[in-house]
Each structure stands twice: as C-alpha cells, then as structure tokens.
Amino acid sequence: xxxxxxxxxxxxxxxxxxxxxxxxxxxxxxxxxxxxxxxxxxxxxxxxxxxxxxxxxxxxxxxxxxxxxxxxxxxxxxxxxxxxxxxxxxxxxxxxxxxxxxxxxxxxxxxxxxxxxxxxxxxxxxxxxxxxxxxxxxxxxxxxxxxxxxxxxxxxxxxxxxxxxxxxxxxxxxxxxxxxxxxxxxxxxxxxxxxxxxxxxxxxxxxxxxxxxxxxxxxxxxxxxxxxxxxxxxxxxxxxxxxxxxxxxxxxxxxx
Length: 256
Hints:
There is one protein chain. This protein is an alpha+beta fold. The protein is built from 7 helices and 16 strands. It has a 7-stranded mixed beta sheet, sandwiched between helices. It has a 5-stranded mixed beta sheet with strand order 11-10-12-16-14. Strand 10, helix 4 and strand 11 (about 175) form a beta-alpha-beta unit. Helix 1 runs antiparallel to helix 2 and helix 5 (about 180-190) packs parallel to helix 6.
C-alpha cells in the first residue's frame, strides 16, 4: 500500500468522525466516569467503533483508548493507534482544546497521523514521506534557534498541580492547554513553538502527534532524550518532548 492510500484513509476517518461530532454540542455533553475518574461520552464510543471499521485492513493491528486491548496487535507490523476524542474532559466542558487523533505505526515507528479539531476547524495530516498539511495547505514546525522567549503548550492539569512551577522564572512562557494530541498537532503545523509532558502518557495520546511533529521537521523524544517506540505490550510511556530541532538540546538541559 502506498503512503498516499494511508493518508486518504486517515482523511476519510477524520471526516467521518467529524460528521459524528456534528450531532453533539461541546459543553452540553452527558458523560459517565471510567475507572480512574476520566469521562466517557457516547461520542467517544461511536467514533471508536466507526474508526475501527474504517481504518484497519486485514493484518493491521488496533490500539484505542476506548477498545479493550488485544495482544494480537503485537504481532502486526502495521498498527492503528487511535484516541476517538483526546481531551474528552474539555469536550464535556466546552473548552475547544480536544481532537480526534489517528496514528499509524509501522514496526514501532510513528509514520503517519491526523488530528481534527472540529470546533477550531483545524485538520492536521501528515506522514514522514509527505510532510504536513493544515486544512490541506503545506505546513511545518517553526524554525526556532533560541529557547528564550518561546511559548510552550503545557498540560492544564500538570500546571494546576504545580508541576510547571519549575519553569516559572525561566526563559520561556507557559500556556496551559488540554489535549496533548492537539498540542502536538499545533506544533507540527507551526501554530505553536513547543510542547512537552511532565507525566506519563499512553500511546494513543501521542502516536498521531509524534508522526505529525516528525513529518513537520521537528523532534520527538522521551524526556531522557531517547527515541520513542510504539505498539509496546504496555502502552504507557514516560512522556514526550516535541520541539523544533534548533532548541532540542536546550530543552533537554532545562527539563527536571
């Protein structure tokens, strides 16, 4: 299969998910609570089922926040890693910082992805071979050579817990935001400088964003500077740093 076919599949999946979301009004959403307290909506479940039907071809694996995990994915070389709505809390509260997130993994590497934020009318799609587009137009990670003055998109919950206090008097400014997939997509499309997490995330949170940032010319690493891999038996990862290449070393030195 050519990468063009994969990108078409991602575009089609995002469009279908956005159509489903048209039946809901963010801020006026009924939600239940999963184990651990995270919200779950009917929209999450509908989009999960829809994308599970649309994306995988025979032999492809599947990993989604809203699907019971199966070890069968571990033997697949191609795996779709999906979060039907990344930022469900923001979706429920009516904060426009959530998105549908679709990532494609080949042999552990994030090779293609797409996110759609229907409220902000933003669709970021890309692959390692083709680069990144924002609403169909070419885009890329910003060229940044100095860490001084950059704005970093940070997890709102991490900021609220005081985990970003370390950066308060540093050379950068911090902007709290919801969905990590959305934050990574903004970096990939050149709409933000950088983002990183200070707590562990799951692969479905960051698979699409990783592919997009890399496709846009940026770097994505674990907080210790090592290269992330996907489709691991345990999908929990230590967090991610997604930044322009020109400040990658400076950011690593700044991290606690």
